[in-house]
Every structure is written in C-alpha cells, then in structure tokens.
Please model this.
Amino acid sequence: MDGGKKMAEILYGNNVAAAMEEALTREARELVRCGVTPTLAIVRIGERGDDVAYERGAMKRCGKIGIDVRRFVLPQDVTETELLYVVEEVNRDKGIHACLMFRPLPGGIDERRVCNSLAPEKDVDGVTESSMAGVFTGSGSGYPPCTAQACIELLNHYGTEFAGKQVVVVGRSLVIGKPVAMMSLGKNATVTMCHSKTEDLAEQCRAADILIVAMGRAGLVGARFINPNGIVIDVGINVDDAGNLCGDVGKEYAERAKAYSPVPGGVGAVTTSVLAAHVIDAARKAND
Model:
C-alpha cells in the first residue's frame, strides 16, 4: 500500500447544487401557494456560445425549482436606446422579480449606464453599482455576482473554515475577484489579491490556505503554486487545444492540494443554484 500523500478531496459542485435545490424548491412552492410565481428575466444580446450555454443551464435549474423565466433575446447590432427600453420594460413589470443580463455588452454601448439603469432590487447578479456597494460595505443590501457567491457556497458546503485563514484570490474583476475577496474578508479571513502584475505569483499562491483562481488563463497555476495543505477553487473556464473545457489550474497540479474544485463540475455547477436563490429572495422581498 502506498504510504505517500493521501488523495486530494474533490469538491464537486453538484452535491452543493442538489442540497440547495431541495430547499429552494420548497421555498418556491410556498411562494406559489401565496399567489406569487418567482420570475426571472434573461436579457441576452447575440448568440455567444458561453452565454447560450449558461442560459440553457439557468433555465433548466429554474424549471426544476419552480421559477418562471422570460427571455429577451436581442440582435448583436441592438442600439443602446433599444436595450435601455428593454431594461425599463423589465423594471416596470411587477410580475418580473429578477433580471440576469449577460455581459460584456457589444461595443458602442455604455455598459455602466445600461447596468445601472436596472432596478437594484431586480439585480440578482451584481451588475449595478448599488449591488456592489452592498458587497463592499458588507451592508447586506443587493446581491453579489452569482459566480463569486458560488465559490463561498461551495466552500461552506464542505465545511471550510475562513476565520483566520489566508485566502489568496488571483484575478481582480468585479465579477469574481473583487467580490469574492470582500466576501472572504467578511468571513474573517486574511485576504491577498493577486493579478497579472503581481511579482512572484507562485510564492503568493503557495502561502494560501484557500486559493481562488479566476484569471481565465488555462494552465496559469502550476506545481510551484500549490500548498499541499491548502484548498484550490478553480473558477477559470477555458477551452484547451483538444477542444475540452479546462480551468486555470492544471488538474495534475490541483491534485497536489488537500482539496480542489474541478473544471467542469465545480463552481459552475453551483452558480445557477445561487442565481435561483437570488430570484426567490427577490420575489419574497417584492411581496413582503
């Protein structure tokens, strides 16, 4: 029998999603019994493959839980005025409780203006500055981006302790890096944020008890980055030369950690469940 290091624990997202789905289905049924059907609007421009795939997954998850979905699919050459009209339509419709708007928006459209035109109470994916202010101040108002919260939900499900731990976040986007850093800080972790200009990135990562990688660069994290007693959360979504989905962390290197989330099958599997949770919460608040 091999007396070497034991196998890394794999943090599968489907286990988290299944646990969340059971509770969310009960909550959705209770809302329906009270005369409220939780409803999500999806605003998508064009036919980007990743957007279409995520939309399909979101609709499937919402359908299983009992959330209605209304799709607003616009052409790639939509004007800013036309898009703002659709957002205003979503804002005015009291039967719509939440909105998922795919980004990035096409060139020539003021993304900041369009995102901030969405009613904050319907912003379930952290696209408005109002929602992000809630994340950064810890006020509890608004909703964080679904993928960022999915990282936290995944770690919580597997009993990860944050308080006093060293969390290293690689990537500083407003979609994942910055909000997940703030959410980890809110759980009393000590947080280091790294990015493409960080000197000796491997040394910074190796010091992490929890390493969250969200750069969108296949193969970024190699052997020298891994703490054998740490947990690696890979949020990267890339396609390798063979056309297969892969993360930012090479699987052979992730396996050197104590535990890791795979790509596919990790954080991505939790994201649509977080979206559903936000929709149900928004529906409840709208009818309190």
In short: Residues 146-268 form a domain with the Rossmann fold fold (CATH 3.40.50.720).
